[in-house]
Amino acid sequence: MTAEILQETYMHRCLELALPGLGNTAPNPMVGSIIVHGSHIIGEGFHHRFGGPHAEVGAVNSVKDKTLLRSSALYVNLEPCSHTGKTPPCAEMIIGAGIPEVVIGTADPNPIVSGNGIKKLENSGIRVTTGMLEKQCRALNRRFITFHSCKRPYIILKWAQTIDGFIDVLRENPGISQPTWISNEISRMLVHKWRSEEQAVLVGTQTAIMDNPRLNVREWPGSSPIRMIIDRQLKLSKKLNLFDNASTTLVFNELIDLREGQTHYVRLDFEGSLLEPMLNYLYETGIQSILVEGGRRLIDSFIQADLWDEARVFKGLKQFGAGVPAPVIQTAEPEEYRIREDVLMFYQNKTTIL
Fold this sequence. Notes:
Blueprint: H1 3-18, E1 32-37, E2 40-46, H2 55-62, E3 73-78, H3 90-97, E4 101-106, H4 116-123, E5 127-129, H5 134-140, H6 142-150, E6 154-161, E7 166-168, H7 185-197, E8 200-203, H8 205-211, E9 226-230, E10 249-253, E11 258-260, E12 263-267, H9 275-284, E13 289-292, H10 296-304, E14 310-315, E15 324-325, E16 335-339, E17 342-348
Parallel strand pairs: 3-4, 4-5, 6-13, 6-14, 8-9, 8-13, 9-10, 10-12
Antiparallel strand pairs: 1-2, 1-3, 7-15, 11-12, 14-17, 16-17
C-alpha cells in the first residue's frame, strides 16, 4: 500500500467517525479525527454534539501513552478551529500536545476560522497537509459549507408522486384534512429519519390545511426539527397540529411579530419573492438546513429560483388519473433506489457550491 493510499484510508476513517454527528452537531460541522503513530491508529474521536468536546480533543484524550503524540500525525476531515467558542481552540490544543504533523481534509469556510487554524499550526512548526479527500470531506459537511459560503441554509426538497405524475388528488373540501398517502410505510419512516437530520422543516399554507401534519419525529429516534409554516395572512386554524406548542414553530407572515409559547410569528416582506427574505432570516438565526415538504406551489418556487441543493422524490405505484401535477426538475438526472415497491429518486443540483 502506497503512502498516499494509506493517508486516504486514514481520512476515510475520519469521515466514518464524523457521520454519527449528523443531526446532533449543528450549527457545528461533523468532524472525526484520528491519531496515527507509525502505521497504527492509537487514538480516535468525533464531535458528538453541539457544545461538547471537538473531535481532535477526543482523539488526543483517547491516546493512552501521551509520549507517543510527539512522534504521531493527527488526521481530521475539517480544519481545526482557532478561536474560543463553546470549547477552547483545537489548534492550540494540538500545538500544546506536541503533535508534529496534521493532515486536513478541507479548510473551514466559517470566517472566524477560514485558514487561521492552518496558519496557527504552521507558524508553530507543525507540518500541515491539506486537501486529503477534499471532495468527500466537503460533501459530508455540505450543509455547513453551503451555509457559510452561500449565506443561506442547505435546501432539501421532498415530495411523493404517483406513477402517473401526481402529488395529490383534487380535493373539494377546503377544511382540515389528512394526507393522501402515496409512498409505503418504510418510505414514510425514512422521512422521519430525514427530519431528525435537519434543523428545520417547511410547509406552505395549503399543506398545513390539507394534510394537518405534525412535522415531528415519531417513527425514528432523534430530535424533531424546528417547524416552519408560510401563512401570509394568518388564516390557519389554531386547531391544526402545528399549533400544539409541542416544539418550536415559526410562522412566516406579513402582519405581526409575536411569540405565543413555542410558536413564533415572524413578520416578513412578502413583496416580490418571499424566498429571499425568509432565507436571509434563517441565515441570520443560524439555521443551516431545511427540509421542504410543501406542496406543488412552494416546491416550484424553490426550483424556479434555483434555490435548492437536493431533491428526494418518492415514486409510488398508485395512479390518480387526475390531480395536482408533481413538480418537475429538468436540470439534473436522478440516482434511483428501490424501497420495496417505491422508487426513491435523488437529485443533486449541479449549480450549487459543491
